[in-house]
Design a protein that fits this description.
Layout (H helix, E strand, L loop, with lengths): L28 H20 L23 H6 L4 E5 L10 H6 L9 E5 L3 E3 L2 E3 L6 E5 L6 E4 L22 E3 L5 E3 L2 E4 L15 E3 L4 E4 L2 E3 L5 E3 L3 E5 L2 E4 L4 E3 L2 E5 L2 E11 L1 E3 L9 E5 L2 E9 L1 E3 L5 E5 L2 E2 L8 E2 L11 E5 L16 E2 L2 H4 L20
Parallel strand pairs: 1-2, 2-5, 3-6, 4-7, 5-8, 6-9, 7-10, 8-11, 9-12, 10-13, 11-14, 12-15, 13-16, 14-17, 15-18, 16-19, 17-20, 18-21, 19-22, 20-23, 21-24, 22-25, 23-26, 26-27
Bound molecules: 2-acetamido-2-deoxy-beta-D-glucopyranose (4 copies).
Length: about 375
């Protein structure tokens, strides 16, 4: 599947243009300044990207110009690809995913496609920084499951210290240019409300320019550690109870389902932008927030936490307040929490915290395309 193009906002949207003013009293200076800068910056970058001459005529002003070339390293890596078949029944190249990764040369310059046959792989997988360009490709009709159950408080194998949240991941990716398609990432450790040390990550992605297609992430507390870098998730299913998408990645989630299994009050995201200079943030477009418990759309792990939901269906579990400052009111004027054209029973902004905002068309635009993660230079069709 080729990456989807974003078409200009339909005129119908004029109906929604009247901006909802959530508060006139709260100081919004930082927020306003940042918004203005972001809109301006977005336009400069769009101009710099030089759309094809007929783009305007074709009504493509709302879409990403596709003229920018791929990263040079990436382009080279895609020329000579190598494929490994992973099959537990012994008929492939390797029986485990870890063995296949061990047999990829360090500092490899070409893509290695790991075609993972159906099955449940109980493996703890780490892709080191020195092994970029790895793809995990599963069978769409019967995707493989990679499972584990480590938690932050599990003891490490050599004994001694407890693992941390960081080390609890079933699959941890430190390498750049990772791709997963039709893979189920899982951490089955349960989470009881009120206990500590039960953070249990299914996937940690710390590599830059990683993309995930038609993949699922199952866990409870802290399922998806969207740690750092530019990331893209499309048609994914992400399930958890508390802060189940967290980290300081700069990520674009498109057409994903965020499924809460919380028993009480929880937060879907905990975005950790903790310094003003960081360009990180989570943008959810055409997503669906659903499931059990009651949830905030986000709580501020970092002072400058940044999350936007656009065109998304917010089910009744979303709390009217919408957002949470993690008990620190100094964050109210620093975080960046926006909503744009969402629908569903949880999208009524009447009861929202005063420091969240309904975005206007121009304010939302920088967040609603793959350009948000500079996708032009690195997003590939997942089947390659
Ligand atoms: C091994 O798995 C493959 C693919 O799933 C299948 O086609 C093949 O028949 C299996 N072979 C054996 C010996 O089980
Ligand atoms: C994790 O899974 C192993 C193997 O299935 C099991 O023995 C162990 O009890 C599990 N631990 C937790 C904390 O669920
Ligand atoms: C969006 O996701 C749903 C599954 O939730 C899928 O059925 C649908 O095909 C996806 N849409 C696109 C455009 O890929
Ligand atoms: C939104 O919520 C407010 C307060 O609960 C309510 O008065 C209003 O009717 C709701 N609007 C819609 C469109 O449901």
């Amino acid at each position: 599947m080729a990456p989807r193009k974003h078409h200009i906002l339909p005129l119908l949207s004029l109906f929604f243009l009247s901006r909802i003013s959530w508060s006139d009293a709260t100081p919004q200076k930082d927020y306003d300044k940042w918004l203005t800068w972001n809109v301006h910056n977005h336009h400069l970058r769009r101009l710099a990207a030089k759309p094809p001459p007929n783009a305007a005529a074709a009504g493509l002003s709302g879409s990403t110009p596709t003229t920018k070339a791929l990263d040079v390293r990436l382009e080279k890596a895609e020329v000579n690809k190598e494929r490994f078949i992973i099959n537990q029944n012994g008929t492939g190249d390797y029986k485990t995913i870890s063995e296949a990764i061990d047999n990829i040369p360090i500092h490899n310059t070409k893509r290695f496609i790991l075609q993972i046959m159906p099955g449940v792989y109980r493996e703890k997988i780490h892709i080191p920084k020195i092994k970029p360009f790895i793809s995990f490709i599963g069978d769409p009709d019967n995707p493989p499951t990679i499972t584990g159950n480590d938690t932050a408080s599990s003891m490490s194998q050599g004994g001694g210290a407890a693992l941390s949240t960081f080390q609890s991941a079933t699959v941890a990716v430190d390498a750049d240019y990772f791709i997963a398609s039709n893979i189920i990432f899982e951490n089955t450790a349960p989470h009881e409300v009120g206990t500590v040390g039960e953070q249990a990550v299914a996937l940690r992605i710390s590599g830059n320019k990683a993309s995930f297609y038609e993949s699922s992430f199952y866990g409870s507390q802290d399922t998806l550690y969207d740690h750092k870098g530019l990331h893209y998730f499309r048609n994914c299913f992400i399930q958890g109870s508390v802060d189940f998408i967290f980290g300081y990645g700069r990520s674009f989630y498109e057409n994903c389902t965020l499924n809460s299994i919380a028993k009480k009050v929880a937060s879907v995201t905990a975005q950790k932008r903790n310094e003003k200079s960081m360009s990180s943030g989570f943008s959810f477009k055409d997503c669906k927030v659903t499931g059990s418990g009651t949830v905030y759309l986000g709580r501020a792990w970092g002072d400058y936490s940044r999350v936007v939901y656009s065109f998304s269906f917010l089910d009744k579990l979303v709390l009217p307040l919408g957002w949470n400052n993690w008990g620190k009111s100094n964050r109210n004027s620093k975080v960046y929490y926006g909503e744009y054209k969402c629908s569903g029973p949880g999208s009524n902004v009447t009861g929202r915290v005063t420091w969240a905002r309904a975005l206007t068309d121009v304010e939302a635009e920088p967040f609603i395309g793959t350009y948000y993660v500079e996708g032009d230079s690195w997003l590939l069709s997942p089947s390659t």
